[in-house]
């Protein structure tokens, strides 16, 4: 009796989603090597792929329940696990690393809720997120790295821990959060910040 060879058949959009495995794995390798800026730049490249897969799924009529779950697992990797690894190796260790555990826990809950309800509408009737979306973590990481250039290590790590704690709580806050209205905004922002991170990595 013949049947399918594999447990699932991936489409074009699924392959774009899975490109995040490559970019975030390379980011993790760079972070472990102490290349925090370059690793952060790759997180923004991964974020670009995350923005493209949803847009292309709708444009090509390839949206699926499997694709939504796959995207959620990739979000856990690129927006929670690797950023936490970066910040841990950068200096949030010991008791200062507790906000990183909180971020992963709150982010996992946030993604699970999103899988259940999807987007919501704000008071103006515009599409919005319920709770702060997990994809803001690379922006926080980039901001922390910039602060570390000008501030002492103790102050920058205190600010980083505070920012991650606030971010974690905001992910579970029952209120609408801003949603980018166009793909062009996301492409411009992610590519711009990725190039900035790579430039700083090359300059330092």
Task: Spell out the key features of this protein.
single chain; 204 residues; mainly alpha; 7 helices
Distance between termini?
A: 61 Å
- Helix-strand topology string: HHHHEEHHEH
DSSP helix fraction: over 70%
* Main sheet strand line-up: 1-2-3
**Average pLDDT over all residues:** 93
Dominant shape: globular
Global structural class: mainly alpha
Tally of DSSP β-strands: 3
Specify the number of helices: 7
Roughly what fraction of the amino acids lie in strands?
A: under 5%
Largest sheet: 3 strands, antiparallel
Computed over alpha carbons, the radius of gyration is 18 Å
Structure explained in plain terms:
The structure is a single chain. With 204 residues, the chain is mainly alpha-helical. It contains 7 helices and 3 strands. It has a 3-stranded antiparallel beta sheet with strand order 1-2-3, with no helix packed on it. Helix 2 (36-59) runs antiparallel to helix 5, helix 3 (65-90) packs antiparallel against helix 4 (98-117) and helix 4 (98-117) packs parallel to helix 6. It is globular, with a radius of gyration of 18 Å. 34% of the residues are buried.
């Amino acid at each position: 009796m013949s049947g399918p060879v594999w447990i699932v058949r991936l489409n074009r959009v699924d392959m774009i989603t899975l490109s995040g495995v490559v970019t975030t794995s390379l980011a993790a390798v760079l972070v472990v090597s102490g290349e925090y800026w370059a690793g952060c730049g790759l997180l923004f490249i991964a974020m670009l792929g995350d923005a493209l897969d949803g847009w292309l799924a709708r444009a090509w009529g390839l949206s699926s329940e499997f694709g939504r779950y796959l995207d959620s697992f990739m979000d856990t990797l690129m927006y929670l696990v690797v950023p936490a690894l970066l910040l841990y190796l950068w200096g949030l260790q010991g008791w200062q690393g507790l906000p990183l555990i909180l971020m992963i826990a709150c982010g996992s809950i946030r993604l699970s809720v999103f899988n259940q309800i999807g987007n919501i509408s704000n008071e103006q009737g515009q599409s919005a997120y319920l709770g702060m979306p997990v994809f803001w973590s690379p922006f926080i990481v980039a901001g922390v790295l910039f602060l570390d250039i000008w501030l002492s290590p103790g102050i920058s790590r205190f600010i980083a821990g505070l920012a991650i704690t606030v971010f974690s709580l905001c992910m579970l806050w029952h209120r609408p959060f801003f949603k980018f209205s166009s793909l062009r905004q996301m492409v411009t922002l992610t590519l711009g910040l990725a190039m900035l991170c790579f430039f700083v990595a090359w300059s330092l």
